């Protein structure tokens, strides 16, 4: 009981705030307020996963079937704020929550048995140590719990990738095409895999992950990201 009083006192003095709008959260809210949740820029890629502009982006680079994103990315929009929080503001729980929300949506749309394995895009060990967590892994954990599948850290990032920002499409592809390896190749054979990342811009990183896994004969490879833009 004493613990609860203390918690109540703390939340009066330091109320938890919404990760997007910074308004104080009610006790029944977690990470995001109900208003921000209702305004999330949701997409409907999951309704047409094999024929959309995201798939067109990666099709020339890797053999993927379904490609989808939970949120529409726009600079200075809500998804940008969320990405910033999960990447740079020490918010692994927010990444897990969003993964869970996406997983719930996908489950409601018939995706419960679509995948055997959920594989996050890995961070290089150095970056992982600096950040303390991998936001894509946290997203994958949330997705996996909603869809009742075990997440599998099957990929390893061998070399730290340089910043992609000032590179052309071809340069970006060359920058990532040899950086991943598979931890346990035996687990890939004949599996239906979805690779998970926080954001998809050119799709080069995700395509490189897909290619790396493809070498070990999975049944299919799909891509699901938190946010993507045109
Ligand atoms: Zn809010």
From TrEMBL:
One Pfam family per UniProt: Pribosyltran
Domain Phosphoribosyltransferase: 139-228
Keyword Transferase appears in the UniProt entry: yes
Keywords: Glycosyltransferase, Transferase
Keyword Glycosyltransferase found: yes
GO MF annotations in UniProt: glycosyltransferase activity
Family annotation (PANTHER family): DNA UTILIZATION PROTEIN YHGH (PTHR47505)
Family: Belongs to the ComF/GntX family.
Protein name as catalogued: Phosphoribosyltransferase family protein
């Amino acid at each position: 009981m004493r613990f609860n009083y203390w918690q109540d006192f703390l939340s009066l003095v330091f109320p938890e705030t919404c990760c997007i709008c910074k308004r104080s959260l009610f006790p029944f809210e977690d990470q995001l307020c109900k208003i921000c949740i209702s305004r999330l820029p949701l997409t409907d890629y999951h309704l047409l996963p094999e024929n959309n502009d995201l798939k067109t982006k990666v099709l020339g680079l890797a053999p993927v079937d379904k490609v989808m994103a939970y949120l529409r990315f726009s600079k200075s929009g809500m998804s940008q704020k969320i990405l910033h929080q999960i990447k740079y503001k020490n918010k692994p729980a927010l990444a897990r929550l969003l993964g869970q929300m996406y997983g719930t949506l996908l489950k409601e749309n018939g995706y419960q048995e679509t995948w055997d394995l959920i594989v996050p895009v890995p961070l290089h060990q150095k970056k992982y140590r600096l950040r303390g967590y991998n936001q894509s892994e946290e997203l994958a954990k949330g997705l996996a719990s909603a869809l009742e599948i075990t997440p599998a850290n099957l990929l390893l990032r061998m070399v730290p990738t340089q910043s992609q920002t000032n590179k052309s499409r071809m340069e970006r592809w060359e920058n990532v095409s040899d950086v991943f390896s598979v931890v346990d190749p035996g687990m890939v054979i004949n599996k239906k895999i979805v690779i998970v990342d926080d954001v998809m811009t050119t799709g080069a990183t995700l395509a490189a992950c897909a290619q790396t896994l493809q070498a070990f004969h999975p049944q299919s490879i799909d891509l699901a990201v938190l946010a993507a833009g045109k």
